[in-house]
Specification:
2-enoyl-CoA Hydratase, Chain A, domain 1; 8-stranded mixed β-sheet; 9 helices
């Protein structure tokens, strides 16, 4: 019987498939590039804490309001009770809700910073998300420091009914107070940023940045197409389309986001009061 070399099996988790170009790439190489595909530049979705880690000075982040939890005002149930869905999301993400907020330093400059996490019920905006955004604005106002929010996800969290919908008004009013008072607010739109989040605080930044090819829009293209009975232009609801039509200020790759934010804060500081 002829001798045969035993086939080696590759360990699990060594490769991942890119959702952008469908290439199979080394997971470690993707991670070393801040979770960006080395082949096509596709930006993988990352947890909220990663956005913050990639942005602030190492060891400078202090979280706010980590223990805030939402209620179940409607006793809502679809495929499962809302409380069970919340517990499932908490176990999956290690978060209490869909946003992480706190204070940190960006190249030595004090900032209030927050990031939404798409893995927590699609980063839908409920009472806790709204409350944390409002509290972040209030701290930026009190301390006279810039506010940076990495926005994601979707609409109002239907499980909380009007409590969720009211967060659009609350966050918009808070941002208006911040704009009147002066500290700069920079909104960064990640993939995807849609629904009530986009229609409120995400689109109210003094400066609005976006990651490349991020999906950005109020509602799905299919719904718009059926409502208007028209064909939508190519690339509709991408960051590139919105930049071309003047809805956002810049598209910034993840590898350059920290440096760009730092430079914008320097500009804002130099022109404040003028």
């Amino acid at each position: 019987m002829a001798w045969r070399r035993k086939k080696k099996e590759l360990p699990d988790g060594l490769f991942i498939k890119c959702e952008g170009c469908q290439a199979t790439v080394f997971k470690k190489e993707v991670e070393s590039r801040l979770n960006v595909c080395p082949e096509c530049g596709y930006h993988f979705r990352i947890p909220a804490r990663k956005h913050i880690e990639y942005t602030v000075d190492e060891g400078s982040f202090e979280e706010f309001d980590a223990g805030l939890v939402t209620s179940d005002p409607l006793g809502f149930a679809d495929r499962m009770p809302y409380q069970e869905r919340l517990e499932q999301a908490r176990k999956q993400t290690g978060l209490q809700d869909a946003i992480v907020t706190g204070q940190g330093k960006l190249e030595g400059r004090d900032v209030v910073i927050g990031a939404m996490d798409h893995s927590f019920i699609m980063a839908s905006m409920g009472a806790v998300v709204g409350e944390k955004v409002v509290r972040s604005v209030e701290r930026a106002l009190e301390w006279r420091v810039p506010l940076i929010l990495f926005c994601a996800g979707g609409g109002a969290r239907m499980h909380e009914g009007m409590v969720s919908l009211s967060q659009m008004a609350r966050t918009s009013a808070a941002v208006a107070r911040l704009r009147d008072a002066g500290p700069v607010y920079i909104s960064v739109l990640t993939n995807p940023t849609t629904g009530g989040t986009l229609a409120s605080f995400a689109f109210l930044g003094d400066l609005i940045l976006a990651e490349p090819k991020a999906l950005i829009g109020f509602t799905g293209a299919g719904v718009i197409r059926e409502t208007l009975h028209t064909e939508l232009p190519p690339g509709f609801q991408t960051a590139e389309f919105l930049l071309e039509h003047g809805f956002i200020d810049s598209i910034v790759p993840r590898s350059g986001m920290r440096a760009r934010l730092s430079r914008l804060l320097d500009y804002a500081s130099a022109t404040s009061g003028k």
